[in-house]
């Protein structure tokens, strides 16, 4: 596999970053994951816009123009022959002698790599996943997409060790989001509920697209917090992310939803999302 590091396309074994990179020492960096279908990028402008917001929130500069980033992504997709998968992009503040305050003049580091993945016929999406609820121990600016992912990693690991597919994180009695995805329920009355956009959750690119499709299709959408208790009484539940699209949740803690199979609303939204993504990928 070929990866991109600070201006060069190199084989992954030859790719190097400094031990003094602030991404490595402080988690001082931001990232984006964009999915690739038919060799084309899905929702690239929205991902780049969010990258800009994350960088601005951390007073970090972008090491390349957004057009250059897109060209690098396209070149890497071609070099690695990615038809279906994801492309990961990371910007860190750069390399400096270790000190907590920001270094004065530093060049940000840019790393981009691809991952092959079955997105359309993902067997997990066909069956649905189970989730457990766990305390949300992350920081309070989850709207900034930083590489400080240890709390999310711990949650996912605990979920897998306990036989679940993922964790839904809970703060002050309400679900915030999944370890790496936004969380939704469909009430018995057919209303789609997902948490409102604040600093408490990542503003998912897939979330925005799916809510738009849902409203266009006539579903009622409520952007508000819900409790694990309400989720357990729901008709359906699902998650969204760039790499999982719309994925059904068929069990929450010990409660089986929808007889343990993906529900009709979830299945329809997944189909609508894939149709739109394929049509608009570029
Ligand atoms: N929330 C969190 C915490 C995430 O890590 C992700 C995936 N990056 C999402 C939500 C979903 O965001 P998107 O649809 O932009 O992938």
UniProtKB/TrEMBL annotation:
Enzyme class: transferase
EC number: 2.6.1.42
Listed InterPro entries: Aminotrans_IV, Aminotrans_IV_CS, Aminotransferase-like, BCAT-like_C, BCAT-like_N, Class-IV_PLP-Dep_Aminotrnsfr
Single annotated GO MF: branched-chain-amino-acid transaminase activity
Keyword Transferase: yes
GO biological process, one term: branched-chain amino acid biosynthetic process
An annotated GO cellular component: cytosol
Name of the protein in question: Probable branched-chain-amino-acid aminotransferase
Catalytic activity: L-isoleucine + 2-oxoglutarate = (S)-3-methyl-2-oxopentanoate + L-glutamate; L-leucine + 2-oxoglutarate = 4-methyl-2-oxopentanoate + L-glutamate; L-valine + 2-oxoglutarate = 3-methyl-2-oxobutanoate + L-glutamate
Origin: domain of life: Bacteria
The protein's required cofactors: pyridoxal 5'-phosphate
A Pfam family reported for this protein in Swiss-Prot or TrEMBL: Aminotran_4
NCBIfam families: PRK06680.1
Function as written in the Swiss-Prot or TrEMBL entry: Acts on leucine, isoleucine and valine.
Family to which this protein belongs: Belongs to the class-IV pyridoxal-phosphate-dependent aminotransferase family.
Keyword annotations from UniProtKB, A to Z: Amino-acid biosynthesis, Aminotransferase, Branched-chain amino acid biosynthesis, Pyridoxal phosphate, Transferase
Residue spans crossing the bilayer: none
Metabolic or biological pathway: Amino-acid biosynthesis; L-isoleucine biosynthesis; L-isoleucine from 2-oxobutanoate: step 4/4; Amino-acid biosynthesis; L-leucine biosynthesis; L-leucine from 3-methyl-2-oxobutanoate: step 4/4; Amino-acid biosynthesis; L-valine biosynthesis; L-valine from pyruvate: step 4/4
């Amino acid at each position: 596999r070929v990866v991109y590091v600070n201006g060069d396309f190199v084989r992954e074994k030859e790719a190097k970053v400094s031990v003094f990179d602030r991404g490595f020492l402080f988690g001082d960096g931001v990232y984006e994951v964009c999915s690739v279908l038919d060799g084309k990028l899905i929702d690239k402008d929205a991902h780049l816009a969010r990258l800009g917001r994350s960088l601005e929130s951390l007073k970090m500069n972008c090491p390349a123009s957004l057009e250059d980033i897109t060209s690098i992504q396209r070149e890497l997709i071609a070099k690695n022959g990615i038809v279906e998968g994801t492309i990961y992009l990371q910007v860190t503040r750069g390399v400096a002698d270790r000190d907590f305050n920001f270094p004065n003049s530093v060049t940000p580091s840019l790393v981009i790599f691809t991952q092959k993945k079955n997105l359309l016929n993902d067997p997990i999406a066909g069956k649905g996943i189970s989730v457990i609820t766990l305390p949300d121990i992350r920081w309070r600016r989850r709207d900034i997409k930083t590489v400080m992912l240890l709390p999310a990693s711990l949650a996912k690991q605990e979920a897998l060790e306990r036989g679940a597919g993922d964790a839904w994180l809970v703060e002050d009695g309400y679900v915030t989001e999944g370890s790496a995805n936004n969380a939704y329920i469909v009430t018995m009355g057919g209303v789609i509920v997902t948490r409102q956009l604040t600093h408490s959750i990542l503003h998912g690119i897939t979330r925005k697209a799916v809510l738009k499709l849902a409203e266009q299709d006539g579903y009622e959408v409520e952007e508000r917090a819900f409790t694990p208790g309400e989720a357990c009484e729901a008709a359906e539940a699902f998650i969204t992310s760039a790499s999982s699209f719309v994925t059904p949740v068929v069990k929450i803690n010990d409660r089986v939803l929808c007889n343990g199979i993906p529900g009709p609303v979830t299945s329809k939204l997944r189909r609508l999302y894939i149709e739109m993504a394929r049509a608009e990928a570029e």
